[in-house]
Amino acid sequence: MAKIVVALGGNALGKSPEEQLELVKHTATSLIGLVAAGHQVVISHGNGPQVGAINLGMNYAAEHGQTAAFPFPECGAMSQGYIGYHLQQSLQNELHHRWMNKNVVTMVTQVEVDPTDSAFQNPTKPVGAFYSKEDAEQIERNKGYVFKEDAGRGYRQVVPSPLPKSIIELDSINTLVEADNLVIAGGGGGVPVVKTDDGLKGVPAVIDKDRSSALLADNLEADQLIILTAVDDVYINYGKPDQKVLRDLSSREARHYINEGQFAPGSMLPKIEACLTFVDGDADRTALITSLDHLDDALAGKVGTVISKTGALVNE
Ligand SMILES: Nc1ncnc2c1ncn2[C@@H]1O[C@H](COP(=O)(O)OP(=O)(O)O)[C@@H](O)[C@H]1O
Ligand SMILES: NC(=O)OP(=O)(O)O
């Protein structure tokens, strides 16, 4: 039996509640498959598109005098509830379908960040919808938001993405996991909070969920970190005619490709860095990056990129 932290990508969760529920149902089948195989599974997820959509909706309602203004950390907490609800329901339905009995719980999770983190001066985390260059420039002028190009897919608003320092609810998560519950935690990288003289305080930012998931996996002493996103594999020369699948990577090879600039900042780079943080902690640990659709194939070794301290296979 292995302890596995599975991180689901926010961009791979679809663009609407209907799409998300459909995608999550499919992923629930594979996740419960892992549970049925005897593994201890902890689930985390991204929230970039979702927190951006919630924030836009709340801003619109506030600008039209229909609601009070909702700060960004509150929007992050809402995204944890929204995505956690779909995950809980889909996992519970799949458990029921298989006549399995297990409690599923979403933990609203706060993650401590450093208020002096330089990320607050340099927003990099893409959130919300994709825009054309012209539309992004117009919104920048009208609202003062910052936009950046996101991995060739269009322009998106970016917000600060400080590094996760500690998981506030770690003890509760650990207790629930050890009591054999299926736990969803660290959603959206956790709601970012800073420690002040008056206690914890939310800050407007989005922590990278891959980095938080690596911290969670390390803190829970997990054996494996699985990052599920929109692509089946990690590539070098991604999107070019000579792109090549990386099936199996040692830490050393991964660092070499990072230095070559093979992984886009804001998308694949933080995933690779998160995997390195996790696997460098212990030689027996592995990390797997694959798509939400092909987890079963990846576990069978047919697709996906495995990262470990020493590497095992030869790349195709
Ligand atoms: N070298 C690469 N190999 C594979 N995908 C890459 C690479 N560089 C950038 N990407 C992009 O990174 C995306 C995954 O990052 P992102 O969309 O931020 O993930 P998520 O929201 O699922 O966590 C892929 O869908 C792909 O477009
Ligand atoms: N919080 C976060 O990293 O979200 P995405 O996975 O959507 O980028």
From TrEMBL:
GO molecular function: carbamate kinase activity
Residue ranges constituting the Aspartate/glutamate/uridylate kinase domain according to the UniProt record: 3-282
Record keywords, A-Z: Arginine metabolism, Kinase, Transferase
Catalytic activity reported: hydrogencarbonate + NH4(+) + ATP = carbamoyl phosphate + ADP + H2O + H(+)
CDD domains: AAK_CK
One Gene Ontology term from the biological process aspect of the record: L-arginine deiminase pathway
Pathways involved: Metabolic intermediate metabolism; carbamoyl phosphate degradation; CO(2) and NH(3) from carbamoyl phosphate: step 1/1
Entry GO CC: cytosol
InterPro entries: AceGlu_kinase-like_sf, Asp/Glu/Uridylate_kinase, Carb_kinase
Family: Belongs to the carbamate kinase family.
NCBIfam families (alphabetical): arcC, PRK12352.1
Entry protein name: Carbamate kinase
Native source species: Secundilactobacillus paracollinoides
Biological classification of the source: Bacteria, Bacillati, Bacillota, Bacilli, Lactobacillales
